[in-house]
Amino acid sequence: MRFYTLTTTLAVLSLAFITGCRQTVNTTQRAQSQAAPSYVDDHRIITDRGLGRIIHILSVNETTVSGDLLKIQVRLENTSKKPQTVNYFFEWYDVDGMLVSSASLAWESKRLQGKEVGVITAVARNSRVVDFIVKLQEPKR
Predict the structure, then answer these.
(1) What is the CATH number of the domain that holds 78?
(2) Cα distance between residue 128 and residue 131, in whole Å
(3) pLDDT 10s per residue in the chain (141 long)?
(4) Which residues of 81-102 are buried (b: 16+ CB within 10 A; e: fewer)?
(5) In sequence order, which residues have a C-beta less than 8 Å from that of residue 93 and are 6 or more positions away?
(6) CA angle at residue 68 from 66 to 74, to 5 degrees?
(7) Where are the beta strands (DSSP E) in the chain?
(8) 8 belongs to a structural domain
(9) What pTM, to 2 d.p., does this model score?
(10) Cα 72 to Cα 21, 41, 114, 134, distances in angstroms
């Protein structure tokens, strides 16, 4: 009897552990959104077809913060069932098309669970910035 109880307990704990390890998120939102995003018409250049099949850019929004700093938000979707990490980097340009130095020269990472939609956001550090390029790449293995 004791062996049966121990086996049953282990089975239940194993099932709870396996079920608890799944990284899913239930969400809810307004049926009619109150947000009025300012979408950016974007031009996409895909050089990594593998990454392009896994991570989709759904939209690019822009606004200004602190009076005159450009803020960009990119909505990404992981189209695979497995968690994926994507590295990203924002380049900032002035009205003359010249690259504006950024305080951060490092790539950042965003992890998305399977089928998850997430955002990456950046704010220009200089009020002369009027344009941007966002670059995505798979993490180095």
Answers:
(1) 2.60.40.3230
(2) 9
(3) 554 454 555 455 555 454 455 556 677 888 888 888 899 998 888 888 889 999 999 999 999 999 999 999 999 999 999 999 999 999 999 999 999 987 667 899 999 999 999 999 999 999 999 999 999 999 887
(4) eeebebbbbbebbeeeeeebeb
(5) 99, 100, 129, 130, 131, 132, 133
(6) 85
(7) 55-65, 69-78, 84-94, 99-100, 108-112, 117-123, 129-137
(8) no
(9) 0.76
(10) 33, 13, 24, 9
Closest CA to 109 of 140, 80, 132, 82: 140
- Show the tokens assigned to 111: 């992890």
Q: Which domain holds residue 95?
A: 38-137
In-domain check, residue 98: yes
Separation in Å, CA 108 to CA 24, 31, 90, 104, 138: 23, 33, 9, 9, 11
CA 91 to the chain's CA centroid? 17
Side chain identity at residue 6, one-letter code: L
Is 57 inside a domain boundary?
Answer: yes
Q: CA end-to-end span of the chain, whole Å?
A: 50
Locate 116 and state its tokens.
């998850």
Side chain identity, residue 128:
R
Domain count, the chain: 1
